[in-house]
Amino acid sequence: MKAFLQATPGDSFLQHALALEYIKRGDDGGARQLFESILHRDPAYIGSYYHLAKLLERAGDTQLAIQWYEKGMKAAKSAGDNHALNELRMALEELED
């Protein structure tokens, strides 16, 4: 996967997939860097908001997780992606309870 990413470094899908692999391997720092890179470059890549916020939740950074959930909800709403919007909203509500 890294070879594909080197050939197309701006590919959000590949970066997202690699970030998920990093999480599976316990490299939350590497995953966080990739998710943040994706979302700063491509704020419409909605799937990464949830995973980044969940990662931040696990790390105990609740306030930053809330910010990313809220940003993701705004992006999902703008894109008309009600499924992602509901998923992000439920995760946020669960965190705030």
Helices, by number, come to 6
Q: What is the CATH superfamily label?
A: Tetratricopeptide repeat domain
> In CATH, what is the class?
Mainly Alpha
Count of extended strands? 0
CATH architecture: Alpha Horseshoe
Residue share in β-strands: under 5%
**Radius of gyration over C-alpha positions, nearest whole angstrom:** 13 Å
Enumerate the spans where pLDDT stays under 50 for 5 or more consecutive residues.
Answer: none
Q: Roughly how much helix do the residues carry, as a percent range? A: over 70%
Summarize the structure.
With 97 residues, the protein is mainly α.
Descriptive tags:
0% strand; mainly alpha; 97 residues; Serine Threonine Protein Phosphatase 5, Tetratricopeptide repeat
3D architecture notes:
This protein has 97 residues and is mostly helical. The chain has one domain (2-96): Serine Threonine Protein Phosphatase 5, Tetratricopeptide repeat, CATH 1.25.40.10. The chain contains six helices and no strands. The chain has helices at residues 2-7, 12-24, 28-41, 47-58, 62-79, 82-96. Helix 5 runs antiparallel to helix 6. The model has no long low-confidence stretch (mean pLDDT 92).
SSE layout and pairing:
Elements: H1 2-7, H2 12-24, H3 28-41, H4 47-58, H5 62-79, H6 82-96
Helix pairs in contact: 2-3, 3-4, 4-5, 4-6, 5-6
